[in-house]
Amino acid sequence: MKRQAPPAAESSATPGAARSSEKYQRILDAAIAVIAENGYFNAPVSRIAELAGVADGTVYLYFKNKEQILMAAIEKALTTFLERARQELQTVDDPKQRLRRLACLHFESLAANRELAVVLQIELRQSAKFLAEFSHRYLVEYFNLIRSIIREGQERGVFRQDVSEKIAANCYFGALDEMVTSWVLSEREYSLPAMADAVVDLLVRGMETRPDV
Amino acid sequence: MKRQAPPAAESSATPGAARSSEKYQRILDAAIAVIAENGYFNAPVSRIAELAGVADGTVYLYFKNKEQILMAAIEKALTTFLERARQELQTVDDPKQRLRRLACLHFESLAANRELAVVLQIELRQSAKFLAEFSHRYLVEYFNLIRSIIREGQERGVFRQDVSEKIAANCYFGALDEMVTSWVLSEREYSLPAMADAVVDLLVRGMETRPDV
Amino acid sequence: MKRQAPPAAESSATPGAARSSEKYQRILDAAIAVIAENGYFNAPVSRIAELAGVADGTVYLYFKNKEQILMAAIEKALTTFLERARQELQTVDDPKQRLRRLACLHFESLAANRELAVVLQIELRQSAKFLAEFSHRYLVEYFNLIRSIIREGQERGVFRQDVSEKIAANCYFGALDEMVTSWVLSEREYSLPAMADAVVDLLVRGMETRPDV
Amino acid sequence: MKRQAPPAAESSATPGAARSSEKYQRILDAAIAVIAENGYFNAPVSRIAELAGVADGTVYLYFKNKEQILMAAIEKALTTFLERARQELQTVDDPKQRLRRLACLHFESLAANRELAVVLQIELRQSAKFLAEFSHRYLVEYFNLIRSIIREGQERGVFRQDVSEKIAANCYFGALDEMVTSWVLSEREYSLPAMADAVVDLLVRGMETRPDV
DNA sequence: AATGAATGAGCGTTCATTCAT
DNA sequence: AATGAATGAACGCTCATTCAT
């Protein structure tokens, strides 16, 4: 994250790409592409550099090591997502609708960038240690958001009280996650966001208090 | 030529040597242990061999390459699981109960062997290609089993017809899967099977036809 | 020092060199040659391997890392020297003669293997840390030997008591050491052992009690 | 063109830029500090630049390459030392006293700047080639000074004629050198100059003609 | 079938040096 | 004169795989 002060601005003399330091971003994008294609451990830093159009050594001007590239990519994606999610959820009040909105965002975000989706769904879990650390640092916030919505719903009497909020959040996230993985692995092209309603429907029905008999 | 009868069945993952041999199994167990501990890419074949008590070269008498060890381990775990699942499900008729029974088995199987769980939940996803191939070859059967139960439920009028059986299966599997991942990553020790009822409850309620108003 | 059990014996089928594990020694010799030529930091392991006639990776079968090669070479040279020194000194009683004998051995040992001499005189001192550790582990024994001879001389009244044994040992070693360095750096070829008498003469005179006036 | 007058004298080790510049000196000091701490090969130019408070590239305005920094640092230290030595020796006539004075200066100079001492005693010897070139260019003068004193002593009949002046100089220098190395490596703090008398005593006694019996 | 020494391609990373500004 | 981002060659080391025994 030690983003070197970009030497100023893009000059004219540079063929094709802008000179200076959207290089950070170029490396990040290249990394996601190469990792998505080959997996983290089969993604040589040299290939990432090549795709980013920089020298091997340049990568290390922007990232401490290979792992940090992946970390940075994931962190950014998640931070962006959470920020957007929190913002959009402010305009929705009903817990059911909030879960629905969140699922749409989840799907839209990943559908918009399939390579990123591959990385998040698959490469993220290369090793227990990596995932564990990651989960604790970033994913936990997403979970907390989900749990807070469910809790709110329970307090309002919209969701059943006899469902552990933690378990419900797990099921909700797990269902979304599996849908994405399924989509990522599928050869057939289909709209992921279009699935949101069905999924949320199923889960919300599972959680809601019966409109009593 | 004192070739000791190389015992029968050879699957794709198993060349020249005996699949049933005791060494075969020892290598498999060692592989799961080492991979669970360090991750697939940080699991040297030499360490697997060491733990299995065989020479490095011996591993290659039983497996074509490193990837095939992981493949074989997973294949066996899944085959065993599916076999047992099919058997146990024969004694249950009600679709809801069948889903419940399946979830219990899912959790029990993995809770009984945490190392295997780590491998299945995490190491499985080293690369999109790997996972894709794996999914298509083995996981698809599990999915088909789940889907057939749901379909049966729909046909009997126990589950709503307006839920895509495919999506429902995804949600069901995703929820279970996330519960397991959560359990694997958790430091606190708790009973995974004990969670089965709550999870199935949530999902079954989401799928069932309302006991009409 | 983890010398792999050499797989048995030299077979006939091997062209030129013996098959198996004087490889350890070959690598050591190659290392000394390459380091003497280029200096430790400019001595690629790959060149050492090449000169030893083994693959790069093989080096690491015999040595934990590059530093350990240098360490092993030096340790062996010093151990051999000290062993021989102690043995030969048993046959000499007079302290003055013992110092003389030791100096001869010192010079002979290094003159017999100029490359080793280069390594010991020069490469040994690449870094303060390296040298410090080395001195404390190996050189200290040599110093102790020298000091014990001087002390003995003092006790017998052959050497002056008003000279710190430690300082005298430093001067003695320093003089020998400088002679060797001088010889190593000199382009002109001359006999190092031939210098021994003159050097020892100077130092012994400096230490001896005057045959009283 | 606002070229600030690039001040006069340029030696071999100093290209384009000013040798007398303040930055030049800052780089030199930084280099000695960093090299003393980490060794020449583990002393990144970037760290030297950082410590000197200049940009990486600036270093190359003052020095042709990394080696030249070390060269220049050593050259300056030796030049300064020799200049001072020659001056101080003008006030001493007796060869024995001159050797004593020289040893004191030797020890004082290095004791006054431990980092420089580390560099001179240890880092100087990174490679036979480096040391050889260095010896021939700078150290030789020091040796000549020592030899001239000894020769003078011999001519005056103070020192024995049967000692090669060259060997005697080697022993003298070697003894001093070893004392310094010993001091540099020692953890215990002690006064190096305090050792001068004892060392010189030993050597001078070794060289002097007996006050005849 | 079993061994394990040997291989060598491949990788992550460092750092002296350059050069456009 | 001064900068510091960029370069890319070079290196130490690992490890999947082979093969002579």
Report the radius of gyration of chain A as a whole number of Å. 20 Å
Q: Helical residue percent of chain A?
A: 55-70%
Show unreliable segments of chain A: 1-20
Oligomeric form of this entry? Answer: homotetramer
Please trace the helix and strand order of chain A, writing H or E for each element.
Answer: HHHHHHHHH
Number of strands of chain A: 0
The most extensive interface between chains reads:
A-B, 51 and 50 residues
**Average pLDDT number of chain A:** 87
Secondary-structure content class of chain A:
mainly alpha
Describe the main β-sheet of chain A briefly: none
Number of helices, where a helix is a run of at least 4 consecutive DSSP H or I residues of chain A: 9
> What is the molecular shape of chain A?
elongated
Taking the alpha carbons of the first and last residues of chain A, their distance comes to 57 Å
Strand content of chain A: under 5%
